[in-house]
Specification:
This protein is an alpha/beta fold. It is built from six helices and six strands.
């Protein structure tokens, strides 16, 4: 008898118990480094599939999305344990979260992915307003660009950057101008870089 699939509240996909277990583990990792007062919430679209790319993963090198964010801040990882880097990230008042809190099935089409993002957006908006309550939100990743205007109109209770309906760090090659804009938005949160 096949295991029944249930909808995941973190991503909207129909999933098995192993998926749910991984989601709870990622939530525990993230919660461990959640700042008491979030100066800047870095909001990305989809949780990376590789644990090395997931910022809060406890036992892997910083690669992909995680490395790009730390480099953009800039927060050095050289000679530091993963826990030290994440503690410094936390002390800056930074938190990373995703609209889709789980990696997606790689067989999903672009339309299916967009539909899941759109479906999860209201829950994300609710979580930002009621639970996270950041001083500002910085939109990251190209997957959020189609939803940037909705997020700007959502009355999150804080400023959203970039001001124009787009997103920071939305391509593999980030321009110097984009990095400067990202760092300026962070500095508005009274974040002093380490």
């Amino acid at each position: 008898m096949p295991t029944p699939l249930l909808p995941c509240d973190g991503c909207g996909q129909l999933v098995d118990s192993a998926h749910m277990s991984c989601r709870l583990e990622r939530l525990a990792w993230t919660t461990r480094f959640r700042p008491i007062h979030i100066q800047a919430l870095l909001l990305a679209g989809i949780t990376p599939a590789k644990s090395d790319d997931f910022l809060y993963s406890p036992d892997s090198p910083f690669e992909g999305e995680a490395a790009a964010i730390l480099q953009a801040i800039p927060l050095s990882t050289e000679g530091k344990s993963r826990e030290t880097v994440l503690t410094e990230f936390q002390k800056l008042g930074l938190m990373l979260t995703h609209v889709l809190e789980c990696p997606l099935d790689p067989n999903l089409s672009e339309q299916e992915t967009r539909a899941l993002l759109e479906k999860q957006l209201p829950a994300t908006i609710f979580r930002v307003r009621r639970s996270l309550k950041p001083k500002r939100v910085l939109l990251l990743s190209s997957t959020l660009q189609p939803f940037a205007e909705k997020l700007h109109q959502a009355n999150l209770g804080c400023p959203i950057f970039p001001v124009s309906p787009s997103a920071f760090l939305s391509s593999a090659t980030v321009s110097d101008a984009d990095l400067l804009a990202f760092r300026t938005a962070l500095s508005l949160s009274n974040i002093s870089f380490i």
